[in-house]
């Protein structure tokens, strides 16, 4: 038996945990469920992140960084999509709008919209991220990995690795998400990290930009003039 003082402080800890939903071992929860979410479910949501590209930008954009943010409500069901996002750096002219950051901005807008499905306050929206998994077509850069840790996501799942992007010629900061995550233990959250999901599919989206021989992703073709991969629809549109 614990002495009364220890019991009281343990009780207080439980109470604080219940009130704020933050604890040193909050990650245990993420660990146990993370390992039981099936590969098929992971692939389903990575497909959704890929699908964000044509929905938000175009089928084969230069910066093919798509994101889907999901609430895995249980380990047996698929979970719910909260929002999607895609890299908008070139479209908007904002260098911080990588796919993950654009999706976080979008999700906060979706979560707090007065006429939306959630109608959360700012405080509630911040707390909601602790339940979410971020799926992204490529490993988060240090800026995005840091934002993901500040948000306190429960999980982060990526397809193509930073090492592969570098191999394909992408100018990248040579710092893996794993390193950022490992050095973020002073933040009061734990984010499970999983890489390589559907990379066999997403690698094609990143191989052509800095490589003349790189084939275009499915449904897209090289435009002779610009050297860019364009979707059939887009090049017809361009010819007009
Ligand atoms: C489980 O979560 C804890 C944080 O609560 C973390 O320190 C540990 O590395 C995680 N273990 C695994 C296998 O992911
Ligand atoms: C996410 O799922 C949990 C159940 O696991 C639920 O309690 C929570 O309200 C959900 N969050 C949102 C924003 O729907
Ligand atoms: C924001 O997410 C919603 C819900 O998934 C989606 O319909 C919308 O296209 C997204 N907007 C942007 C700009 O990504």
From TrEMBL:
GO terms for biological process: tRNA wobble adenosine to inosine editing. Residues 40-182 form the CMP/dCMP-type deaminase domain. InterPro entries: CMP_dCMP_dom, Cytidine_deaminase-like. Residues 1-24 form the signal peptide. Keywords: Signal. GO terms for molecular function: tRNA-specific adenosine-34 deaminase activity. PANTHER family: CMP_DCMP-TYPE DEAMINASE DOMAIN-CONTAINING PROTEIN, CYTOSINE DEAMINASE FAMILY MEMBER. This is CMP/dCMP-type deaminase domain-containing protein. It comes from Salinomyces thailandicus.
